[in-house]
Amino acid sequence: MKLVMVGNGAFAKKHLDGLKRIPGAEVASIVGRLPESTAAVAKQYGIAHHTTKLEEALAQPGVEAAILTSPTQLHAAQGVQVMEAGKHVQIEIPVCDTLADADLLLKTQQETGVICMGGHTRRFNPSHQYIHKKIQAGELKVLQMDVRSEEHTSE
Fold it and tell me: How far apart are CA 138 and CA 56, in angstroms?
């Protein structure tokens, strides 16, 4: 899968480190705010194309998806742009900072049919692994777990 990395900070680098270990995953382009720092990260990770324009990155041949690690305030607009370009998108946390932006992302996902997902799983954090191991060993019990799931409406 060819994808675009949006952002070049700490979260982007964590994703890039992980992507290096996934056979068949290729970062076709990296997008950043500043040309110099974006070029430096592209060079560090062997990414052939870098730009400050998301539309340019999404237009690279074979791109199927994007990972957004940009500032939260950009997530909704960039997520919509990615989905409207027909690409899947993973958006790092927080996915957005307003309910209106969340509604917009949902509406765009439903209209385009591509995958839009929030990133950041904690299951690999040491503290979460510690608790998981204690539960698996029978040393701790889950006494109550509340899960809420319902279809979202914009009414």
Answer: 53
pLDDT tens readout for residues 30-50 = 999 999 999 999 999 999 999
Contact 8, 30 (CB under 8 A): yes
DSSP annotation of 28 reads: E
pLDDT tens-digit readout, 50-85: 999 999 999 999 999 999 999 999 999 999 999 999
Check: CB of residue 89 under 8 Å from CB of residue 69: no
The H-or-E segment that residue 50 falls in is strand 49-51
Query: What is the DSSP secondary structure assignment for residue 142, as one 8-state letter?
Result: -
Q: d(Cα 153, Cα 102) in Å, to the nearest integer?
A: 11
* C-beta separation of 68 from 9 below 8 A: no
Concatenate the DSSP letters of all residues of 83-124 into one string: HHTT-EEEEPSSS-SSHHHHHHHHHHHHHH---EEE----TT
Position 154, amino acid:
S
Specify the 3-state DSSP secondary structure of 66. strand
Token pair in block for residue 117: 């997902």
